[in-house]
Batch of 3 targets.
Target 1
Amino acid sequence: MAKELRPVHETKGILGALALVAVAVGLYWSLVVAPPDAYQGEVQRIMYLHLPSILIAYLSYFLVFVGSGLYLWKREKRDDILAHAAAEIGVLFTALTIIEGSIWGRPTWGVWWTWDARLTLTAILLLIYVGYLMLRSLIEDEQRAATAAAVLGIIGFLDIPLIHMSVYWWRTLHQPPSILRPDKLPWENVHPSMLTALTISFVGFLLLYFYLLSVRYRVGEMRQEIKALRLERGAR
Amino acid sequence: MRAWGFVAAAYGIVWGVILLYLYSLKRRYDQAAAELERLRSTEASAGHEEK
Amino acid sequence: MTLVRQAYLLLWKDVLLELRRRDSLLTMFFFGTLLLFVFHFSFDLAPEKIAEMAPALLWLAFLFTGTLGLAQLFQAERDNHCFDALLLSPLDRGALFLAKSGFNLVLMVLVEAVVIPLFWILFNLRSWNLLPQVFLVTLLGTIGFCVLGTLMSAITLRARARELLLPLVLFPLMIPVILATIRCMEEVLHAGHIGEAMPWLRLLLGFDVIFLTAGVLIFDWVIES
C-alpha cells in the first residue's frame, strides 16, 4: 500500500506545480496581454474563465458517467471514489460557470439573470449533480449509496443531450420579444492573442482540475482504507 | 472604470472559491492521513502484542 | 418465460392488489383534482387565458400526482420484505422494472382519464374534439415520467428524507418531457393538430424509448436486498 502512495504523491506535486504555472501565465495573458473586445470591452475577459469552466464541468460529469458505469460493472470501490470526486468538483465548476455567466451578463445584457439556453442548461446541470451529491449523503449504507449514485450518474449523463435539445429548441422557437438577444456568441472578430489567452487559461484550468481531482480521489481512497481498518479492528 | 469592476469581481470570486476549496481539500486530506497513520501504528503495535 | 410475460404477471399482481384496496388510485385521483382547485384560486385567469395555461396546469398537476404514486411504488415490497424473494427467484430484474413502471402508468392513466375531462368542465373549455390528441400527448409524457420515475423511486428507496429526495433527483431529469409535452399540447389546443410541434413529439418518443431501454438494462444492478 505504501508503495502506491509515493508515485501518486509525487505526481500530484508536479501536477500542482504545473497547474500553478499555467494558471499564472493564463491570468497574465487574459488580463494584460489580450486586448479588450471591440464590442464588449474589458468585460469580455470573463470569457477566459467562463468557457474553460463549463468545459471542465462537462469533462467532470463525463468522468462521473465513466466511474458510475465501471462501478456497476466491476464493483470496484475505486471507480465509485472517482465518480464521487468528479461529481463534487463538477458541481464546483458548474457553480462557478453560473456565477461567471451572471457577472458577465450584467454589463452585457443589463440583467443578472436571463433564461437563455446556456445559463438555463448550466443551472439544470447544477441541479442534477447537486441531487447526486445529496443522494449519496442521504443513504446510510455505503454499498447502496454507491449503487444508487452510479445509476443516477449514468441516467443523468444520458439525459444531458436530451435536455440540451429541449432547452435550445424552447429558447429559439420562443424568443422573447425584446431587444436582448442573449444567444449570440460573445464575440465576432477574434484577435489571435485572445485565442492564446483562452487556450492558456483552458490548459491552466485543465491541469488544476486534474490536480484537484487527484487530491480529492486520494482523500476518498484514504477514507475507504480507514473504514476498512476500523471494521477489521472492530472484528478483532 | 466600471467594466474592470465586473472583471475583478468575476476573477476574484472564481479564484477565491477555488482557493477555499483547495483549503477544504487540504484539511480533509490531512485529517484522513492523520487518522490513517494512527490506525496503522496502533494496529502494528496491537499485532505486535498479540504475538 | 419471456421478459414481457414476467413483467405482465408482476404487473397483474400489483393491479389486483390495488383493485382490492384502491389506496393509491383514490389518493392520486383526489390529489389531482385538488390541485386543479388550487390552481383555479391561485391563477385568477380570464377565460381566454385558461386555454393558454391549460397544458402547463394539467401537466404540473400530473407531475405532482404522479410523484405521489412513485413514492408508493415499492411500498408493499418494503413492508413485506419481498425483495429477498424477488432476488432469489429466477426473475429478470428488467421485468420488475417494466412491471413497476407499467403499474404507475396504469394508475396515472386512470387518473388522467378522469382529471382531463374534469379540467375541461371546470374551466369551461370548448375544444372537446381535441381530447383524443390531448390524451395521446399526455400518454407519451406519462410514459417518460413513469419510466424515469420508477428508476429514481427504486434508487432512493433507502434514503433518508426520501419524499423530498425523490422529486429533487427526478424533476431536473424530467425537463425534456415537461417541455415537450406542454409544447405539443399547446400546439394541439392552438392549431387543432400536432403539426408544428412534431419535433417535440419525436423528442418525447425518443426519450421514452431511451429510458425504457436503459431502465430494463440497468435494473439488474438497482435492486439489492
Target 2
Amino acid sequence: MMGFRTGGLTLAVIGAVSLFIGAAWAHPPFCICKMANATTVSCEGGFADGTGVPGVRLDVIRYDESVVLQTKFGPDSTVSFKRPDGEFYMLFDAGPGQSFDVDYKDIQ
Amino acid sequence: MTVLASPSRGASLWQRWRFHLSALVLILPIVFGPAWFHENAFFDGKKGLGQREIGEIAVGPWSVRLAEFKLVAPDAEGRAGHAKEFALALCPACVDQVKAAYLRVGKPRNLRTAGALFSGTPYRQTAEMRVPERTTADDELWLTLEGWDGTLHQATIPIRKASPVMAAWLEKRGRP
C-alpha cells in the first residue's frame, strides 16, 4: 500500500513536471578563432549545447571564393593552420543551416 | 508486547510534509495551466505564425509570410552568442517549388553561408538565426530561398522592421 502511494506520488510529480517541458530548442553552432602565435590561427568549433565537432569540415576561403585550405576539426574540436595573407574567411560547415563563418577581421 | 520503533527525524518530517508536497504538485498545474495552454496553442500554430507577423515578403517569383516567433530579445546561446527565432510560411503556390529557406544577418557570401535553415512544414517553419557580435540595429536580414530547380532568390528586411524588439536590444547593447 505504501509503495502504491509512493508510486502514485511519483507519477503525479512526473505528470506535473512534464506539463512545463517546452519544445525542443535548436543548438546553434559556433566557431571561435584566435591567433595562437604570430602566424598560426587556432579555431575551436562546437554547438551551443556543448556538442563537439571532431571531424567536421573547416574551409579557409578568400574573398574571391578560392579555397586556401580544407581541413577538419581534431578530436578536441580545435584546428590550427597558418594564417593566409590578404582577406579571407573561415567556414565551419556541419551541413545546411549548420554553418558558421568567421571573417578574418573577427580573429581574436 | 511489541514496542514500535520511533521513526527518525527525517522520516518524520517526510511523513508530515508529503501530503502538503503532493497537494502543491497538484495545485501548481492549476495555477500555471492557463499560461501553459496559451503557450501550447502558440507552439501548435493556433495563435498564428508567430507573436508578431512582419508581413508578406516578395522573394523573386515567390513570397513568404515572416513573423517573429516570440516578442523577445535574442536568446543567449552560451558560446554561440545570441540567436533570435523567426517563423515563416511559404505562399501556397510556391510550396512545391521551394526546397529550403535560410535567414541570416548580413549578405551571405554563398549558399553555404546562407544562415539558419528553416525547418518544419511549408506552412509554418522556424529558424533560430544567429546574431553576430558586430550586428547593429541598422543592419539587414537576408532571406534566401532555394528552389528545387536550383535557383536562388533573396530578399532583405531591415532589422528595425523585422524585429523592433531586437533593434532596441542591439541599440542598448551597443557595438562591441
Target 3
Amino acid sequence: MIKTFVLGLILGLVGAASLVYFVQIVDLHREASQISVRPNGGNAETFYINLPQDRIFAAKRSEDTTNVFPAGLRWPKDQDLDGAASEIFKLRNSDDVVVGIAARISNSRESSGAFIQWMLHFPARGSMFLRMQLAPSEDGVRNGLLMAGTREFETLNGGVSEYFNAEAADAEYEIAGRLELVTALVGQLGDEE
Amino acid sequence: MKYAISLIFGLVCGAVLFAAGFYYNPFVGQSTLSALSVSEVELSSLSYSSVVGDSILFTNDGESISRPYPNKVAELWEPTLVDSQLLVTSLLDSRGMPAGIGIKMSSPSEESNLYGAEILVNSVWHLYIPGRGTLAIDQTENYWSYLRDIVIPAWQSSSDSWRGSWSRNMTVGPGQLGTARVTGLGGEFDGLQSEAVESLNARAYSVLQGPVSMSGMLMMAISDDTDVRDTSDSE
C-alpha cells in the first residue's frame, strides 16, 4: 500500500508539473486582420471610430473652461495643460468589430512644440505610436508617421491618415460621424517577416 | 479498494506538494533593484497613484476587483478587450509636483507561463509632460510577485485585505536587462531612444476594492535637462 501511495505521490507531482507547464493561461481573442496589400508595397489597414458611441474619455482645457467626458472626471487644472486635449476611443476594424483602444493627445499651445499624437493598442497584436501633421490637407485628411511600434508593429515603418467622415452619420445607430484611421505600413528591408 | 484510496491520496499529496513548493519557491520573483539603478546614467522619475479613485480615469471589463472609475465610464467588455485595462493618471515628478499626464493601456500576454512564474502583461504608456514633450514606453510586466505576495495573502486573510510594505520592479522586458523601451515622440524628447523601469510600492490591498494604498513609479534613463533634439542637431 505504501508503494501505491508513493506511486500516486510521484504521479501527482509529475501531473501537477505537466499541467502548469503545458496549460496556456492566457488565450486572447483575435479578430482576423483586415489587411489589404498596396500596389507599391506594404500593407494598408483601416480602423474606424464611431462617434460618439466609441468615446471612452475626453478632456479639453482652454483658458478657464474644462470640458470632460464622462461627467465626474477630474482633469488637472494646471496652467501647463492649457490647450491640451485628450480623447480615448474604442477602435473598430472594417467589419465594425472592436479590436483595440486608441488615445489621441494634442496641444496646439504646447511650448515645446504643438503636437497631435495617437497611441493605438491592440491586445493580441501590439501597439503603435503615431505623430500627425498639425494641419490637415484641403480635403480634410491629416497625415502622420509611425514613430514607434511594439510586438507585431515593432519592425514596421510607414504612415497613417486620419479623416473625419461626417457622411457616415447614421441616425438609426446614433452615429454622428466616423473617424477613420488608415495605416500604411511596410517591413524593413531584410526583415524576415 | 485500499490501493485505489492510497493511489488517490498519493496523487493529491503529490499535487499539493508541488503547489506548495511552487508557491513558496524563494528563487522566483522580481528584484527590487533594476539595471538602471546600478548604471551611471542620469535618471528621471515620474510617480503616480495606483489607487483607482486617485486616477483621472480607470476602466476594465467591469467585473474585476478594481471597479471602473468614474462610475459612468465605458467598460472594456468586448471579447478583444475583455482582459485589458486603461488608466489615465496625473504624473508627479521626484519632488511630488504635477509633471504631466500619463495614459497606460495593458493586456495580458500570451507569453505568460506559470512554470516560469511569469504572469506577464504587455503595457504601453503615452506620457505628456507639458513644457518638455511626449514619450512612449513599451514594456512587459510580471505580476507573479504581486499575486503571490499581496493578492493571494489578501484572499487568505480573514479581513479580506493585506497590509505591509512591498516594493518590486514590475518591468521584465523587452530590454535584455529587464528594462522597458522608451521612445521620444515630440518636444525636447524628439528622437530619444532610452530605457525605463516601472515599479510598484504597495502598503494596503483589499479584496473588495483592489489597491488601497499603492503607488507606481516610472524610472527613466533621461536626465532632467535632456534636450535630445539640440544634441542631435549639434552632431
